[in-house]
């Protein structure tokens, strides 16, 4: 993970980091409030050698610096604590006295500093005074030889004892800063862990790796798509519609030498938006002038007719059973060169019906009657219908939903297609988050299109297919009547 991935991960889980910082501040504030204030009393000692001549001044100074380090331990010793408890009535035990005393030798000097901390400022001062007196006496006892010679060192008080008027702990500013820092580090750690454990698709790079195919489109999330799923009317000028047009353009150039005329649109799981994308892709292709046939081959949960507002009673199932002619049930949508074949009734054996010879014959007829055939199929991880249809198509388009589909499920779906040698044209990340920069760029170049079925095509739409060339075959300039263009299937 490089710096850019790290920053992207933290930004994606910003609420985790923010919540952790708030928890850290709350814990620090609680600890600060519940901690009793402690006061510090201090005293400084000067250690020297009496009657020291100038000749041995340097040696004596080095001797005393080494001695001071030992006196620091002596100031915190059990022996001194016992003497203080025996001489002073403070209501403390020797262990409690030791716990309140700290000592430090100032480097490269003969100064020794002692500090006593207590929740009671008066008691801290009294204890410091007692320790000062008993420490000087204890040094004399330790340093005096058995022959009655005077001690070779002398300890004098040069500062204190005195106690501060303000408590030394707790320190609110320091505690809150440490709490915020701890919360920040914990939040970043949780964000990284969350990213590692979260296997759902969060970016297009992961989707490409999972499917092993190029990214052909990234459809942004649009809350209005729940009530207006099609890119017509006011929705024709949204970033979602522009993304579908970009998908249309990318799909044309997947392989210019071997263009895909029959495209199966599928997904790994249900609810990833494949049907909506199939309808919108067919509409976008028809807007560019191609003759498009949209087939609802999801015979278990058909939705194409519902989205397009068409009659769904008779359709693909009835054609495959030989009950009706395809030319009698195919319907033209609006004033565009878009022919729609609904699913019809739900059969008891969808997989067998979709893999039958009648389905193969139907695709041959549609291939001759339309420039491009878009087939909406069932999810690959749920049933085998999608694989059965994709085998008969020129290629498949994998649709995955941002933040919902597991990359392992997408990979398994792609492997299911590869196992039967299905050509995976590419993948589409649906309902993705659109960055601010992309939104700004789109709004800057947006062209408003009048609403209504008779509205003129937007100015940013692809130019006429016949003048461009590319992966798709050139469309006819006139739209034939479906009943005349589509032949009757053998029964």
Automatic annotation (TrEMBL):
Residues 1-85 form the Polysaccharide chain length determinant N-terminal domain. It is a multi-pass membrane protein. Keywords: ATP-binding, Cell membrane, Membrane, Nucleotide-binding, Transferase, Transmembrane, Transmembrane helix. It is found in: Cell membrane. Residues 480-491 have a biased composition (Polar residues). The keyword tRNA processing does not apply. GO terms for molecular function: non-membrane spanning protein tyrosine kinase activity. Pfam families: CbiA, Wzz. The chain crosses the membrane at residues 12-33. Residues 263-443 form the CobQ/CobB/MinD/ParA nucleotide binding domain. Residues 453-491 are annotated as: Disordered. Its EC number is 2.7.10.2. The keyword Cytoplasm does not apply. Belongs to the CpsC/CapA family. This is Polysaccharide biosynthesis tyrosine autokinase. It comes from Micromonospora harpali.
